[in-house]
Amino acid sequence: SASAVSLSRQVQGTGGSSAVSKCSAAARGYIQDRFLRLLVRRRRRRAPLVHRGYYIRARAVDHCVQDFLLKTQSHPRTQILSLGAGFDSLYFRLKDMGLLHHTVVYEVDFPNVACQKATLIKRIKELSALVGDTGGEGLGVITFSGEDYKLLGVDLSELSELERSLEEAGLDNEIPTLFIAEVVLTYMENSRSDALIQWAAEHFSQACFLLYEQMHPEDPFGCVMQQHFSQLNSALHSLAQYPDCEAQQRRFFEKGWTECSIMDMNEFFTRCTPEDEQQRMQALEPFDEYEEWHLKCSHYFVLTASKGMESSWTPLLSNMTVPHCDGPVRMAGSITAVVCATHSEIPGLRRYGHHSVLIKPNVILTTGGFGEEDGQHCRMRNFHVLIKHAGYWKAGCVKKENPDKRWDERLYHTVSCLSSSLALVVGGRTSPSSAGLGMLWLKFPETSNASDPGDVTVELVSLQPAAEPAALRWRHSTTEVIFKGEKYLFLYGGRSAMEPVLGDWYFLHTQELSCTVIPVEGPVPESRHSHSACSWKGGVLIAGGLGAVEQPLGSVFFLRELEHGFQWQTVETHPPLIPRYSHTAHVHDGKLLLVGGVWFHSSSVPGITVIDLMTGLCLDYTINVERLEWPLMLHNHSSVFLPNEKELLLIGGGGNCFSFGTHLNPEPVSLSLSNILTSH
Fold first, then answer.
1. How far apart are alpha carbons 554 and 176 in whole angstroms?
2. CB atoms within 10 A of CB 139
3. What is the mean predicted confidence (pLDDT) over 616-624?
4. Of 87, 71, 107, the residue nearest 18 (C-alpha)
5. Packing angle, helices 220-231 and 290-298, rounded to 10
6. How confident is the model at residue 37 (pLDDT cuts 50, 70, 90)?
7. pLDDT for res 135
8. For residue 455, what pLDDT is reported?
9. Helix, strand, or coil (residue 499)
10. Is residue 32 within 8 Å of 208, Cβ to Cβ?
11. Strands 638-642 and 351-352
């Protein structure tokens, strides 16, 4: 039918665009593949985040394919059947590496894709030479036929036609066979993809299946991902019926496979990628989108299934001793999110990587970040203020005196209020490849009775104190501490253009902004950025963060004031805090609240965690978003806690969701925490 033809065109479009992305990743050294550029004509440089996404996909497929070839090398003949292969170069890479001594590779795709690819292979000497002289004209659906390579033009959803064509091409159902489906089956109706999975198990005596595709459609990132594919007119059909790892595994067992293992891509990267390779990849390009990378990885899985194999085929059971993240997170309850009660539309707060601070009771100043200004996505120049008056929030842009001298439109900076009329901006960045930014004073008028955003003015005063080099970092924390009755700002962690993660600290004397040496004893916390830091009892509570090799941390430390200096103390939590980063935090009444962030548990998104600092008891609460009409993405957000009302305000948040578009939380959200903070 005509609609089926246009649908197949849309799906082929996704294949073409993924080939361009793989090509871009290969050009930047993420994947070693000299054949892609011969098969893919279009050249486009993709973003580092997209390079990483295609890197992990290619690594997962190669890891499993090479494991299959290794495990079956004693067999006289084996075969690989790549479903929806598109312009993939797998055959040429394996042949070039000398791995196809007794293996035939079959590729199937839509007839027009297979014809285009066959034409390319015949035309390009480097490709046709690898297939060998016997490579020649195909017949009918077989568009290209070499001794160990057959290319077929068949619609995968027509199973009987597929079976007939493969038989004609020489596929043997009695020898070890690996089926590969890399983001292919999900574009078919479930009844048809299920039939294909079952057919493979029933008709082949020794079979292995490799599946790579999306999952978790219901959480905020999943919603953005689904919407993207629906807009492309190539909906992901598997998601509704098979939303997670358990459902996919059940699917394969029910369709006749006897062994099946599955993991999401965070787990694959951590457990099946050697650490030196992780570090090589992480150093290829300046990169600062950790949240989006980890979310992308938690929404894709790799699955391997087998049946009838002489020795079990389990490429995903790695020998690495990294704890396994399965099992749902136990929740102690839920907290309902509502859109903030405001008098007016609040433009200007759709942003992430910004900072919000209470500069006076009921007055919140938000600065920096990346977001939407005048209909454009850009680094934010405007300062923004929220004022609570008579139970409602009023919003507006702030008048800046001598603006933009040294503001530099920064992200991932901190703002610390030192008095009712003075705040200090520390660090931040413009682009991740440029050096961090230094310090800046923000001065506001003394008047405390501002009831209208128009009343608030901010004067920017640039300064280059002696302590400036300490500030050239971002994703750090600056927290007020008290030592011998004097106020200091404790500047800790973060990252810089040169160092992917920092573990050092400075005490800034707030009067003259000089670094003061104060002795610190105790176990030094591991380096981290995107952690949280709160003032408590004259010291600082540091929680979570992203550590070396981009692994989330679950440690909590208290920097405690002693007579002669400070001491690091570990705060034991039980159950142990789930490692997370890019969250915000507040202390109230002996309890540490962690808000949002990113963790590797793909079964749920972080809500609010309450740690009792006396007992170490750690309770997780989900955020109920039924009353919001849009996905609430709680990373790179800011939050302000109003202790009298026990109200938590969440401002901004979101990010660039892989290649699926940018999501910015449209409005501030309010959570009432009185239920979970009442003393039991």
1. 44
2. 9
3. 95
4. 87
5. 80
6. very high
7. 52
8. 79
9. coil
10. no
11. unpaired
